[in-house]
Amino acid sequence: MCGIVGYVGTENAVDIIISSLKKLEYRGYDSAGITVLNQKLETYKTVGKIADLEKIIPANFTGHIGIGHTRWATHGKPETRNAHPHLSSNIAVVHNGIIENYMKLKEKLISQGYEFLSDTDTEVIAHLLHSTIKNNTQFSLLDAVRHVMNEMEGSYAIAVLYTAEPDHIVLARKDSPLVIGLGNNGFFAASDVTAFLRYTKNAVYVNDKELVLISPTGVEFYNNDGQQIEKKVDIIEWDEEAAEKAGYEHFMLKEIHEQPASIQDTYAGKISELEGRVILDELKMSDDQLKNLQRITIIACGTSWNAGCVGKYLFESLAGIHTDIETASEFRYGDPVLCGQVFTLAITQSGETADTLAAIRSSKAYGCKAAAITNVVGSSITRETDSVLFTRAGPEIGVAATKTFTAQLIILYLMAIHMGTVRGRLTPENARDILVGIKQLPGQVQKVLNNKNIIKECAEHYAKVQDYFFIGRHVNYPVSLEGALKLKEISYIHAEGYAAGELKHGPLALISSETPVVAIATKGHTYEKVLSNIKEVKARGAEVIAIANQSDTEINKYVDMVLRIPDCHELLSPVLSSVVLQLLAYYTAYARGCSIDKPRNLAKSVTVE
């Protein structure tokens, strides 16, 4: 989720690009860079914040055309050599997205004599453009970008400078945001309007497979066939602060709405739907090692622990591997029974969670293979484990985890399917059914988001209660834990998540007409049992909010309110139910006037014990 900017005009491009990058710093904050074209390409970049970039830029560094970038690492550690822009001779490129076939392209370019100075997928774009122009001397930069778009697989928004065409920038987009600003003293390009709202509120949104050429005299838009097209100009009504949140009132709500993209980005390049298999090159374990595994131990805290609980069910049902889930803060002080045939898996959004780091270090002492699921390239956990599987959720500003939780679930699905097929537990046909379902999730999540007003009404109805219960069975039990955690984190309502079958073992004593119960009652092999549990709490006077499938015509008979999710594979329902519960928590906290992005007493990353 990097941020790109570009400017062509009569003003000092350096000042405008730095100012614009600061507005996009929430999109990436491990490194930054700028290139200005003054007869030649002049580039400055560094690891760190925009302020660190400013420190290395000379006072006399000026120009009227340039591009800039603030990075959220996806390929390569946060190091200066991996910072953008990336250059190939007389071409400079900045990029937001993931080039899925970069390794194949890189190998081809190396065979042509190109030398790579970074570990990024973006450097491939720069060399590919240079190679294309070199081999097609009649090509303009616009021609070359259009040609390269057809070679690249994945997502991208790119901005390109070329010394042979010094008066314009060429841009292109596929699956990553790109917007053009039309100003009086120049023209702007950025990942979102936040970057240039200080200078203009006239914006044009670029669609997939479209190209843009911005010059001092204007902006031209082209389709993928090279035909010039007309575009609508929008007037942005937001102020600068609102724009950082893309018009959402809180980062948490924005991040909830980013989940269709973050889910897709996380599985991108990892699914072979036709073959019914998962491609997990990041998992550094041979098929024989996976076949010989005796046990998996998942180590995590908080929301990541709840994701790990879902993982336990997945690894056992899909791969046939006994799986334990451990709270990191407890694991490190216990006496774990581990050996070389136990695979330890750490789940940590930040990669810096102190207890999880300590726990994974102790597991390594037993000779266990260790892997991590994390959202941050270059974080501490990446140096402590043998394998790292990255979620591609981008920076998460809200303290309460939302998009990173569902991205963790996607990685766990992919791991379980991969292990299940390797171990012969899962046929390609069965794997294909789940993989098809995973690829449908972004669209299904969007359908949930489109119905948020129903969830909002439900939240407002119960906003003044003091206690909530959440119940579920099998994979929906961890979802009940996560739903309760989200509600207590940001609304300060006491909430408990329970395995629905445990109600008779104590919790029923607390059920009353003043205690709403959220029952996760999606279709599956435990559905009838959950209905029985719903009847139990209704008999004690509780009002019940059910999360149920769209096609379920029975559930209305037993509950007070129903929040629907699209029909899906039983094992995938936690993703959709979790989005419902995130919205329920958000709108409850909003109705209560709570601090949503920064709830009291909590921090985003727990880096001390």
Task: Offer a concise description of the structure.
By secondary structure, the chain is α/β, with parallel strands linked by helices. The protein is 35% helix and 24% strand.
Description:
It contains 18 helices and 27 strands. A hairpin with a 5-residue loop joins strand 13 and strand 14 (228-229). With 609 residues, the chain is an alpha/beta fold. Helix 8 (259-267) packs parallel to helix 13 (403-422) and helix 15 crosses helix 18 (573-591). 35% of the residues lie in helices and 24% in strands.
Features:
609 residues, alpha/beta, eight-stranded antiparallel beta sheet, seven-stranded antiparallel beta sheet, 18 helices, 35% helix, 24% strand
Which helices and strands, and how do they pair?
Blueprint: E1 3-9, H1 13-23, E2 31-38, E3 40-47, H2 50-56, E4 65-71, E5 86-88, E6 91-99, H3 102-111, H4 122-135, H5 141-149, E7 154-162, E8 169-174, E9 179-182, E10 186-190, E11 202-205, E12 210-215, E13 218-222, E14 228-229, E15 234-235, H6 240-244, H7 251-257, H8 259-267, E16 271-272, E17 277-278, H9 287-291, E18 295-300, H10 302-319, E19 322-327, H11 328-331, E20 342-348, H12 354-364, E21 369-374, E22 387-390, H13 403-422, H14 428-450, H15 452-461, E23 467-472, H16 476-491, E24 494-499, E25 517-520, H17 527-539, E26 544-549, E27 561-565, H18 573-591
Parallel strand pairs: 18-19, 18-20, 20-21, 21-22, 23-24, 23-25, 25-26, 26-27
Antiparallel strand pairs: 1-4, 1-10, 2-3, 2-4, 5-6, 6-7, 7-8, 8-12, 9-10, 9-11, 11-15, 12-13, 13-14, 16-17
Helix pairs in contact: 3-4, 4-5, 8-13, 8-14, 10-13, 10-16, 13-14, 14-18, 15-18, 16-18
